[in-house]
Design goal:
The chain has 584 residues and is an alpha/beta fold. It has three domains: 2-25 and 450-569, OB fold (Dihydrolipoamide Acetyltransferase, E2P); 43-230, inorganic pyrophosphatase (n-terminal core), CATH 3.90.1640.30; 334-444, Diaminopimelate Epimerase, Chain A, domain 1. The strands form five sheets. Strands 16-17-21-22-20-19-18 form a seven-stranded mixed β-sheet. The protein has a six-stranded mixed β-sheet with strand order 9-10-11-12-14-13, with helices on both faces. A hairpin with a 2-residue loop joins strand 11 (382-388) and strand 12 (391-397). Helix 4 packs antiparallel against helix 8 (202-211), helix 7 runs antiparallel to helix 8 and helix 8 (202-211) packs across helix 9. It is globular. The relative contact order is 0.10.
Amino acid sequence: MKIKQIGPFNGDIIDTILKNRNIKDIDTFLNPNSSEDLNPFDLHNIELGANVLLAHLLIRDHIGILVDADADGFSSASIIYQYIKKIEPDSHISYFLHDRKSHGLTDEISQKIASSTIDLIIIPDAASNDVDEIQRLYYMGIDIIVLDHHEVDKMPEHGILINNQLDVNKNTNKNLVGAGMAYKFCQALDKILDTHYADDLLDLVAIGQIGDISDISENEVRNLVFRGLETINNPLVKIAIMDSFGSLKGLAPKDLSFSIIPMINAVVRVGTKDEKDLLFRALNKIDDGRVWNVEKRKKNKKTGKFDKILVEQDIYDIAFDMMKKVKSRQNSMVKKSLEKLKNNTSIYNEGGISIALLNSPHEASITGLVANKVANKYQKPALVLYYKDKKYVGSGRGDEKILSSLKDWCNETGLIEFAQGHANAFGISIPEDNFEEFKKRTHEVKKNEFVYEVDLIVRENVNRSIIEDVTNNKHLFGGKVQEPLLAFIGIKINKNYIRQKGSMLAFYENGVEFVMYGAPDGLYESLKNNFDRQITMDFIGIPSVNIYGNKRTLQLVLVGCERSGNYDLIEEVPDEVTVETIIF
């Protein structure tokens, strides 16, 4: 492994990390505020859009909301739904859900809207480029308000587009996602109506901003997210967080990424229409106060068998149980797809990119999740595709140790229809006629010498206090403010304290668990199958803490590890000599 310490250690690990992230104003970063907040009325069309909504509410028109198919889509649509219900409790609102993981005004959704009785459709987090569909609905007499954050290819001639990426905005904040734009719309309404309801929905804003991987180092976004984490009001969100962490205190952005957000995404990917409907109703307190008798199975301690009992549950308990089941179903689907791939010749692995072919378009919703597993198994970038309409369509997952951007590499081949999304997590379509040539091109991809850029290199001892300091400040990191990466070099490990469970490999030293998820095949055996009682290891990982019951264990979640002696320090920056760093 090649390791480089980013900058000098000044004795304060948190200050060192923030300087390594090029945070200029550390005080504002640590204490975000509203001083630089975007005035909502600087966004083009926002006042017009607010007044159009109020006009429709005044004459008791039928309002529609399109719910886009991801965590940001559900949270932004919920912000609009709940805000309207706050200012007009008796308003007539219908919501439209995608049957599958789709975005914007698809033909199917457009037909549903056209067949309804709505007078106004509000579309958060989508549809900026759905020019033809917007025009069609407009000519049918339906008003349209789009609240979006995606790049605009062509301005629609009809409807009201409110988008923070537009050049015509007087001022903007391009880091706001769908939930952030929905919040700005509600802020504008608050100012027009002299009310203060928008801030009641900040927990939903946080879900959208974190779920859509926005830049939470930016002051306004950071402030919105922190305030949302401090005021979790939504009953369903509360249940999900309490189930994962046992408390609502001290939440970090990452905590939503490991609780409510993946559960919403699972329902979006593989949930039925009824399950998606239940999720939206629970998020929006529809049927709040109702109680159902639900049949549960409980183990009888005397007989050892499971008895059926009736339990009273509200909509939030029912929805949370459903979300857990759907998440489990999604995991089973991924496992089955991987088993199919393992048992046939559907993985092309001769080049520098693994290409796996799934049997059916019915597996389309999980291609990204399967790609994660394939990339991890073969330790290189992966594409997971299925065949449909003379194209190979699916998802890509990259590995920056090999390519800085798999998406860019695919686009640069000139052989694909599109690769859209993030640098190393995106959707892709390859025409059938180009597929064989594309596979040949993967032979050009070679593994680069990857350098781990770490915040601190610690030699020959496990410094618990540094790991503790980082985990106590976990709320500072997330989005483009990358989590800290630490290197522990020359750590002696008793072989009795090496454990493997499935693909998880763990080492224990000085009360710290060094844990690797998805460990490469054969690594455990190579470390254990020798006559040494003790081995010396080099670890690179992210500080974390595992809480199980009353037991709290410091961890380093590993991104790399190997036996000592093979690492190479690149342009190492010496520690800054201070009173705190001198060793006597």
